[in-house]
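To the wet lab folks,

You asked to see what we're planning to order before we commit. Fair enough. Below is the target structure as tokens, and below that is the sequence we designed to fit it. If anything looks off to you, flag it before the synthesis order goes out.
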């Protein structure tokens, strides 16, 4: 996951997919998102997805008999994994795995109080990886029941809103919680939408948005490879997006500008 240190605390620093068939996942995401892959430092069960040679995300193989949902997970940079996991437990959330040592750092997986899965990472990070930049997802979004309550939880666990350099800052805009790291808008917390979701599998969770040039082409490719669409195409003044499910059940969102570029 890593090559260089950053002054970033509580900011997203990586995303990864745990799936049951690594080769099939590489074929699916390589075709839908125009990725290539290289082996990861963690062994044969892990690979790194690249877009135009730039690391975007990781994919790892789950044991087939492990009763864990296939899902995309964001990782947030922390100073001390032990301190952060203690904060998670103190706030009645669930620590699922870790902290465990991996390569140049330590990682843990947790679920927030509504069940949304997220990871933490203590260690070096990829220097040019940052949400919204070319070699990274376009956007992270937490869809949950109460965005304000979620913001308090993550703020306390990940030091959002702190005074020291490198901390993320939180703003409340248009009924959403918006997270910024420096000048970059890196995530949004949206409340209420899961209550009316027609698909029972769309429970509170972090959604990863990936850029594509052509949404319709991405949907056609995904469905042709055994994936499916979870929502219709939605749009704002500037962007269009749709949530898809890969053949193993992993949810992700593809997005593109409305008017090209």
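Sequence we intend to order:
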């Amino acid at each position: 996951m890593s090559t260089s240190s950053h002054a970033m605390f509580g900011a997203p620093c990586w995303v990864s997919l745990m799936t049951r068939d690594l080769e099939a996942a590489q074929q699916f995401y390589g075709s839908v998102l125009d990725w290539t892959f290289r082996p990861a430092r963690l062994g044969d069960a892990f690979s790194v997805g690249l877009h135009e040679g730039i690391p975007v995300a990781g994919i790892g193989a789950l044991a087939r008999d492990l009763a864990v949902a296939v899902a995309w997970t964001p990782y947030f940079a922390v100073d001390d994994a032990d301190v952060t996991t203690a904060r998670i437990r103190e706030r009645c959330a669930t620590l699922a795995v870790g902290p465990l040592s991996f390569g140049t750092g330590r990682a843990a997986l947790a679920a927030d109080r509504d069940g949304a899965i997220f990871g933490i990472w203590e260690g070096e990070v990829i220097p040019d990886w940052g949400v919204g930049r070319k070699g990274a997802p376009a956007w992270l979004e937490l869809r949950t029941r109460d965005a304000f309550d979620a913001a308090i939880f993550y703020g306390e666990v990940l030091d959002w809103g702190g005074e020291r350099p490198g901390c993320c800052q939180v703003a409340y805009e248009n009924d959403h919680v918006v997270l910024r790291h420096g000048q970059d808008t890196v995530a949004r917390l949206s409340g209420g939408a899961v209550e009316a979701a027609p698909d029972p599998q769309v429970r509170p969770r972090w959604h990863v948005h990936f850029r594509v040039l052509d949404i319709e082409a991405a949907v056609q490719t995904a469905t042709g490879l055994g994936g499916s669409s979870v929502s219709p195409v939605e749009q704002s003044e500037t962007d269009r997006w749709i949530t898809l499910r890969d053949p193993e059940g992993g949810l992700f969102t593809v997005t593109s500008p409305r008017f090209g570029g």
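Structural context that might help your review: The longest strand covers residues 43-51. The radius of gyration is 17 Å.

Thanks,
Computational group
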